[in-house]
Each structure stands twice: as structure tokens, then as C-alpha cells.
Design brief:
The chain is mostly helical and 369 residues long. Helix content is 36%, strand content 4%. It folds into two domains: 255 residues, no CATH class; 66 residues, no CATH class. The strands form two sheets. Strands 1-2 form a two-stranded antiparallel ribbon. A two-stranded antiparallel sheet has the order 3-4. This is Aminotransferase-like plant mobile domain-containing protein.
Length: 369
């Protein structure tokens, strides 16, 4: 319904700012969908072996000789493996051919907005996780960038759960530091600790806005963006992308494309802004619920949805974070959330009595895990 985590205080969700802080990817660049980039390098010209798709076999089939220059074929093959295994985490543990277009665009240094594609892929992954909980046969193995969700949770719960690590990050990036905070032992108790922590956020605190702090680790264009004397036109454009609603897409093939609204106005405190009532990104009567992209005419769909009525302008100014909420939002949230209130014991009881629990009622074909 909202594609957000509903904490007791209000909505919380990964945003483009979180993606930028964790991965170092900017929100700038061209939108990626299956038809937006042409095949400038023919697959037939590259010596890529398509009959060896498992990760190890694909690596062994395309690795070059030590000390020799990296060829275009080897670089594109590496990018395909990287996208499949490390970024989008394909369910088959193989390198599919449909990553070729994106790998080729990256090889040719096209300005692709990977951050929006990655965020939309996370939304798709969480959609599938939510849907799987309602299956009578139990959840299936999930694919997608769940690693991003774990790092985001580490950032939020770092202080509350006293997450520490003795490991040294491999690079100066927030995501590398957060990776070292992931609990090594995967226990049910850890899951219960995270859920209990979520339910304990009755008010918004700086813990829920971890990426606007002055001690942020990462690229200078992100760390210095709140210093008025250093603001550049590029950083203003970047913050316009962080704070403007948009349409983001996931999927490498037409039949797998999903379209999501990016609605940062629902998560204003995460940017250090006062939370007004989170109105929908377009009026209901302006949205055609039967929008279909089976024909691949994405430009027509985007033109229909993204009909800009006003140009968003930003004026640089001295900035101090504010986590206030308006009275309008508070009244609306109390009405919305009152029938959803749930304490941890009741939540745990629901889990234990569900068909997905090893302690609860048994159903055929359910997974013990």
C-alpha cells in the first residue's frame, strides 16, 4: 500500500539519499529501462561464452591472461558477472544474457542512473518478500539486493543496538563501514532484536536520519552538500533529485519491468525536514490504474505520468536538521495507525501461530526455515 516500513512514529523507507550514502552512486544520469540504450557493440563481435553461465564457470571462461590488457569482451563479461552476482543478485546463481545491454552501457561510460535502478530493484525484492508471506506453501528463496536492506538497517540501528566491529573497512565509503556491522551469527534472537528496535521508535530521532550527519563517510560531493559556502550547481541538482517525486523502474526485460513512485515527501524527516501530511505524488484521477508496459512504449507511459505542473527550485541557505511534524500530519497518522498498533509480544505470537513457523501449525510443503 505505501511501500514503506511503518514505524510507530510514521513512515521510514530507503531513499535515493540512502543509496548515495551507502553505495556512492549519485541520483543523476539517464533512466534505464530495456529500450533506452541501443546495442552499440554487437554480441556476435564479443567472445563471450553463453553456454557457461554459472558464476564460477563464467569467470573461468572469460578471465584474461595475467599481465595483458583487459579487452572489451573481458570487461563486459566482468560487468555482467558483477551485476548478476554482486548488485542485483539473480535467483538462478547464473549470469543471464539480458544484463548485456546494461553492462555494455557501463563499459561505454554512458551516464546511467544506477541508483534509481537499484532502489527500484530493492522495492521489487521487498514486494516479493511481502507477497511470499501470504503463500500457503510458505516463502520461497528471495533474490535481489537484500544486502542493501541489511546495510540500511545497520545504519539505523547502529546506536540503538550498539552495533560495533573490529574489522577495518576496505574503502572510505559508508556502505563499506556498515558491512562490518552486520551480525555474524544469524539467529532468531537477532531477528527479534531488530523487530523490537523498530517498535521502540515512538518518536523520530537522529538515528533514523543517519546520512545527514556531518561525520558521514564517503565522497566529498555528498559530505559537503550542506555547507552553503561550498554549494555548486551540481549539488543543487543532486538535492533536487533526492527531494523530487519521480517514477523509478526495475527489470532488465520487458516482461519483468515494474514501475514505482518515488515519493520523498512521505519521508521528509529522513532528509532533516519537517514532515507535512504525505499527500500522494499525483492526484488519483490523474493516474490510470491500467497502465501497461507490455508494448515497451515506456516514453509514452513516462510522459503521461510525469506531467510537470511546477518547476522545483532550491535556494541554498544555512541548514540545521529538523525532525518536527505538522499537526496535520500528527492527526492523520494517529487516525491511520491507530488500528495497526501492535506490541512485540503480540507480534511474536502472530509469528509463532503462522504456518511459516516451525513452532506453529503444520501445513504440507512449508519450509522449516
Amino acid at each position: 500500500e505505501t511501500r514503506a516500513f511503518e514505524f510507530p512514529y510514521g513512515f521510514v523507507c530507503p531513499t535515493l539519499l540512502d543509496i548515495a550514502a551507502i553505495t556512492g552512486l549519485t541520483p543523476l544520469g539517464d533512466r534505464f529501462h530495456p529500450d533506452v540504450f541501443e546495442e552499440e557493440i554487437s554480441i556476435k563481435e564479443l567472445s563471450i561464452t553463453w553456454d557457461k553461465k554459472t558464476y564460477l564457470a563464467f569467470i573461468n571462461a572469460h578471465v584474461g591472461q595475467p599481465g595483458t590488457p583487459v579487452s572489451p569482451s573481458e570487461h563486459i563479461a566482468f560487468l555482467m558477472y558483477w551485476l548478476s552476482a554482486c548488485v542485483f543478485c539473480t535467483p538462478s546463481l547464473q549470469v543471464p544474457k539480458y544484463y548485456f545491454t546494461l553492462a555494455q552501457a557501463l563499459h561505454l561510460k554512458k551516464k546511467v542512473c544506477l541508483s534509481k535502478l537499484l532502489l527500484a530493484s530493492l522495492y521489487t525484492c521487498l514486494d516479493e518478500a511481502s507477497e511470499s508471506l501470504f503463500r500457503e506453501t510458505g516463502p520461497r528463496n528471495l533474490s535481489g539486493p537484500l544486502w542493501l536492506l541489511q546495510l540500511w538497517l545497520n545504519a539505523i540501528f547502529e546506536k540503538k543496538l550498539s552495533l560495533t566491529s573490529t574489522f577495518t573497512p576496505t574503502c572510505e565509503l559508508e556502505g563499506a563501514r556498515l558491512t562490518t556491522l552486520t551480525p555474524r551469527k544469524r539467529l532468531v534472537d537477532n531477528f527479534a532484536t531488530y523487530i523490537d528496535a523498530i517498535l521502540s521508535f515512538t518518536e523520530f530521532s537522529e538515528d533514523l536520519a543517519p546520512f545527514i550527519r556531518p561525520t558521514l563517510t564517503g565522497p566529498s560531493w555528498l559530505r559537503q552538500n550542506n555547507q552553503v559556502w561550498n554549494i555548486t550547481p551540481a549539488s543543487i541538482e543532486m538535492w533536487a533529485r533526492f527531494l523530487s517525486w519521480d517514477v523509478i523502474m526495475s527489470g532488465m526485460r520487458q516482461k519483468e519491468v515494474r514501475i514505482y513512485p518515488y515519493q520523498p515527501q512521505m519521508f521528509a524527516p529522513q532528509f532533516g525536514l519537517c514532515q507535512m501530511k504525505p499527500l500522494p505524488f499525483r492526484r488519483k484521477e490523474s493516474i490510470d490504474s491500467d497502465i501497461c508496459v507490455d508494448t515497451g512504449n515506456y516514453e509514452e507511459v513516462l510522459e503521461f505520468i510525469l506531467r510537470l505542473e511546477k518547476e522545483l527550485r532550491f535556494t541554498p541557505c544555512r541548514f540545521s536538521p529538523s525532525f518536527l511534524v505538522s499537526k496535520c500530519y500528527l492527526r492523520w497518522w494517529c487516525t491511520y495507525h491507530m488500528d495497526k498498533l501492535l506490541d512485540f509480544e503480540a507480534f511474536l505470537k502472530k509469528l509463532n501461530n503462522s504456518p511459516l513457523s516451525s513452532q506453529g501449525p503444520k501445513q504440507s510443503s512449508t519450509f522449516k526455515n
